[in-house]
Amino acid sequence: MALVHTWTGLVLGWLLFAMFATGTSAYFQDEITRWMQPEVTGTADPVASAQGAVRFLQRTAPDASFWFLTLPNGRSATTQAFWYPGTGTSGQTEAVLDESGREVTVRQTNGGYFLYRFHFDLHYLPVLWARYLVGIAAMFMLVAILSGVITHKKIFVDFFMLRFGKGQRSWLDAHNVTAVLALPFHLMITFTGLVTLAAMYMPWGILANYASPDTFQSAVFGDPPAAERSGRNVPLADLAPLMRKASAQWGGREVGVVRINNPGDETATIALTRGPGEAMGSRGEVMVFDGTSGRQTGGSLPQGAALKTESVMIGLHSGRFAQIALRWLYFLSGLAGTAMVGTGLVLWTVKRRQRLPDPERPHFGFRLVEKLNIATIAGLGCAIPSYFLANRLLPTGMAARADWEIHTMFLVWLGVLIWALLRPAARAWLEALRLAALLFAAVPLVNAFTTSRGLPVSLMRGDWLFVAFDMVMLSLAAAFALAAARLAARQRKASAGRTMGREKAVRA
Amino acid sequence: MTHVLGILLALAGFWALAVSMPRHQRDLAGRTLAKSHAFTARWAGWALLAAALAVDIAGLGGGYGLVAWCAHLTVGAWLTVALLHLPKR
Amino acid sequence: MNTRAGKVRKGIGKGNLAARLLAAVPANYALSSLAAACVARALAHGLAVSAPEASMAATLLSFAIFAVLALAAFGMRSVVRLWLWMLVSGAVMGGYLWFSLTTGGRL
What we know:
The structure holds 3 protein chains of 3 kinds. The two termini of chain A are 45 Å apart. Chain A has helices at 2-11, 13-25, 29-36, 46-60, 111-121, 127-151, 154-157, 168-180, 183-196, 198-201, 204-207, 213-221, 239-249, 305-318, 324-353, 364-393, 401-422, 425-450, 455-461, 464-507, and strands at residues 66-70, 79-84, 94-97, 255-261, 269-274, 286-290, 296-299. The longest helix of chain A has 44 residues, at 464-507. Chain A is α+β, with helices and mostly antiparallel strands. By secondary structure, chain B is an all-alpha fold. Chain B has one domain (2-85). Chain B contains 4 helices and no strands. Chain C has 4 helices and no strands. Chain C has helices at residues 4-10, 14-46, 51-75, 79-104. Classes of the chains: A alpha+beta, B mainly alpha, C mainly alpha. Chains in contact: A-B, A-C. The A-C interface holds A 1, 3-4, 139, 142-143, 146-147, 150, 191, 194-195, 198-199, 201-202, 204-211, 215-216, 219-220, 304-307, 309-310, 313 and C 12, 32-34, 36-41, 44, 49-60, 62-64, 66-68, 70-71, 74-75, 97, 101, 106-107.
C-alpha cells in the first residue's frame, strides 16, 4: 500500500499541483476578475444586466442558434455572454458586458475565469483530452489519499507531531500535517471533482438506461433540445417579468444563468437557471418559457436523493454557496491541498537522495523528478504572479490582449522549466523560489503605479477587495522568500558538512 | 462571529485531546498526568469538538454549519499544532 | 507465518506488478463501468426507482467502486485470486446486463 501511495502520488503529482493551485484561486474567481478589471466598479442588477445583454446580442448576433448569459451576482459586476453564431455571421462568440449592455473593452482580460477553467480544461490542449487527463489525475489522487490513509493509520494517533527543520523527517511531517488536518477537505474535493465531470468519465450508468445522454439531460432539466429555426421573425419576450416570476418561485433566490435558443425566431425558448451561489446545491432549478409569449412550458423536476446528492456534491466542490468567512476557509484548505501535493513531490526526492549510489551524480529518473518539481512548484509560483503582472503592464488597448496575458504566464513557466533543466538542481531551486517571491511582491507595487487603486489608497478608502488581493500577494511572496531562505541555510550547512568530511578523509 | 467561536471551540477541543496524550504531557509539563486526569481531558476534548458542531449548526444552519464545522476542525487542528510547537523554539 | 520468499511471491513483486497494474486500471475501469450499468438497470427495473435517479446513483457509486477496486488490486495477497474474483464478478454482471438489456430495452 505504501508503494501505491508513493507512485500514484508521483505520476500525476505535477498536474495535480497545478490543478490544486489554480483551483484554489478559483474560490476567489470573481474577486480576481474584479482586481483584473480595476476600471469596472460598483455592483450590477441581474435583471437590468440581462436586458442590457439582450440588447447587445440583438445587434451583434441576431441569428445565433443560442445565447448564453452568466449574470452578475453580489460578487461580480459584469455579464459573461457567449453564443453560437448563425450560418451567415462569424467571428466573435463571447463578450464581457456591463449592466447597460456595453462591451467592457478596456483592459481586455479573462480574469479569474481563466485560472478556474485551467484547473480542469488546462490550456493549448483540446478540451476533451485535457478533461480526461484531469480526470485520470483526480482518480489517482483519490487512490493516493485512500492508500495514504491505510498506510499511515498511525498518524491519526499522533497527528499533532510536527518537527520542523530536521531534514527528511520535517518534510514528512509537513506532508502529514497538510494532508491529515485538512483530510475531510481533500477527500471531498477529490471525489466531488470527479463527480463534476461524471457523465464524461463514467457515462455507463446513464447509457444503461438511456439510448442517448441527451434524453437523460432533458429528463433532468426539463429543457427539451432546441428545435430548428422556422425562419419567421417574432420579437423576444421581455426577460424582466420572467426573471421576477422565477425568483418568486424559488423563494427570492436570483436567476444566475439565462439561455435563449433561436432568439428572435418563432421557435425561441428561454431557460432560466437559479444562480449557483444562492444555495448549496449547484444544479439550480430551471424554468423554461416560450420565447415569444413568455408562457412557462417546462422546468426541472423536484430532485430525488441521487440527483440532489450530485447537485450538493458539485456545490461543495465549487464552494459558490460559501459566504466570505467560509470562502476564506475554503481558500486556506485549498492552499493546504496544494502544499500537500508539493511536499509529497519533494518528499519523493528527499527520501531517495540518501539511498542513491552516488548522491553527487543521481540517475536520470531522479534528476527528471527533481527538475520537474522545480518547474512545477517554483515554476507555477513564478507563472501565476506573471499573469497578474501582465494584466497591469500590457497596453490596455492591445489586440488579443486577454490571450497575451495567458501567453505571458505560460512563457514565464516555460522559462523556469528551461532554467531548471540547464542549471544544477540545488541552484535552480533557490533561484526559482527567489524569483517567485520577487514576482509576487511586485504585484502590489506594479498595481500601485499603474492604477489608482494601490494599497495605500485602497486602505484609506476601505476598498477591501483590493487590500485583500495585495495582502495575499505579499503573503505568498513572504512564503516563497522564507522557503528560499531556509533552503539556502540548509545548503550552506550541507556544503560545510561535505567540506569537513573531505578534510577528515584527507587527514586520515 | 459563529466562525470565530467554532474555531476557538475546535482549538480548545484539540488542545484538550493533545493534553490527554502522554507524549504531549511530557513536552508541555515535563511529566505525565494521572490516568484520571488524562481521561477527563480526552472526554473534554471530544465534548468541545461536539460543542463546536452544535454552535456551527445553530449559528449557520444544518448543511452550511456542517461544512463550516469541517473547516473549523481543520483550522483548530492547525492552530493546535502551531501552539504545541511554539514552546520548543 | 510467511517466509520471506512467500511474501515476495504473494505481495507486490516484480513478477506480478504488471498483472496488478492491469487489474488496477483497465480491468478496474471495465468492472466499475459494468457495475455502474448493472446498478442503474437494477434500480430502474428491479426496484422501480425513476430512471434519472437510478442512473445518477449508479454513476456516483461507480467512483467509489473504482477507488476500492484499485486498492484491492494491490492489497490482495494473491494475484491469481484477485483476477479470479474480477473475472467471475465481471461475467456475472455482464450476464445480468445482457439479459436486462435484451428483455428491457432503453429509454
